[in-house]
Amino acid sequence: MNNPDSKEEKSFNGLSPKEWALLSKNVWNDVSSPREAFHLEHGATYPIALADRIIKMYSKAGDLVLDPFVGVGTTVVSAYRQKRSGIGIELNERFHEIASEALNKEKANLFENVKGKVFHKIHCDDCRNLRKYLKDNSVQLTFTSPPYANFIQKSVKDRKNTHKTSLIKYSNNSTVKQYSEKVEDFGNLDYHVFLKEIKLILADNLRVTKKGGYSVWVVKDYRDTKNKIPYIDFHSDLANTGKDAGWLYQDLIVWDQNSQRRLVLLGYPSVFYTNQNCSFIVVFRKPLL
Ligand SMILES: C[S@@+](CC[C@H](N)C(=O)[O-])C[C@H]1O[C@@H](n2cnc3c(N)ncnc32)[C@H](O)[C@@H]1O
Question: Which residue ranges does the record assign to the DNA methylase N-4/N-6 domain (predicted)?
Answer without folding.
Answer: 14-100
